Amino acid sequence: MAASLRLRGAASGLRYWSRRQQPAVASLAAVCSRSMASKTPVGFIGVGNMGNPMAKNLMKHGYPLIIYDVFPDACKEFLDAGEQVVSSPADVAEKADRIITMLPTSINAIEAYSGANGILKKVKKGSLLIDSSTIDPMVSKELAKEVEKMGAVFMDAPVSGGVGAARSGNLTFMVGGVEEEFAAAQELLGCMGSNVVHCGAVGTGQAAKICNNLLLAISMIGTAEAMNLGIRLGLDPKLLAKILNMSSGRCWSSDTYNPVPGVMDGVPSANNYQGGFGATLMAKDLGLAQDSATSTKSPILLGSQAHQIYRMMCAKGYSKKDFSSVFQFLREEETF
Questions:
Q1: For the chain, what percent of residues have pLDDT higher than 70?
Q2: 195 among annotated binding-site residues
C-alpha cells in the first residue's frame, strides 16, 4: 500500500461553521474556555510558511504543542517558547493523540504518515489525524484507509486564505471525513480559522481546495493581464485597480492581493514577491487539478493554460516568488 501511495503521490453533505455566525462563535468559545485548564498536547508536523502561524494560533488558544519539521531550524522558535520538539513524525504520534500535518506535496504527506519513521509507526488507537496539506484527493483516501487499519481517524482539511489569514487566524478549512468526527476537528481548526466547512467524505476537502486554486490561478493571471494592458495604455495602476474594484471585473486577486507593485501595501507584490504562496506550489496545485480533470473527463481549458504558464514561470526563475509574480512574468515575456 505504501508503494502504491508513493506512486500516486509522484503522479501528482455540507456542514458549515463560521465565526460570522454568532451561535457558532459562542459554542466554540465555550469549548475553548472549558478546555483551557486541561488541554492535552496537539502534534503539529510541518511549520513552514503556513504551518508556523497556524501552530502559533493553537498556542495562543492554550494548546501545548509537540512539534516536528524536517528542517530543524524551523522548530527553533517553538523550542525557545517552551514547546516540545521531537525528531520524527513517529515521535509526535507517540506523544499526542491529535495531530495536524501541513506539508507541501503528496510525497511529503505519504512520508510523514507511512514512512520509516512516520506517524503510523506509533499512532495510538482513537487518535485524530488532520491533514491540512493540499494533495491528491486519492492520496488522502489511501492514507485514510491506512490510518483506519490502525484504529485511528483521518480527515483531510486543506486551507484557503494564504499566510496573512494564517497569521490572523482567519483561514477557511475545507474538511473531508466522517461527520461524527467533525466537531472534534472543528475544536482545533476553529482556533486557526474563521470558517470550517464539512464537505463530505475523505477527499472532498482536497477536491474543494483544488477547485478553489484552479479558479484563483485563472483570476490572478486575468488580473495581471488586465493591469499590464491598462498600464501600457497609459492608465495609472492605482486608478485602474480602483476602477476594476468598483466594477464587474472585481475579484480577490484585484482587491485583496493585487499583483502590481505599488498598488497595495502588505501583499507580496509590495515586497518583491517574497513570502505568500509560491509559484511552485501553485504549479503543483494546478497539476493536481489537471490530473483530476483527466480522471473525471472534465474540460479545464483555462486551467490547463494556467498550469502551463506557472510551469514556464518556475522554469524561468520564478519558482520561489509568490504566485502573483505572474504580473512581472507577463511584463518581461512579450512573446508567447
A1: 88
A2: no
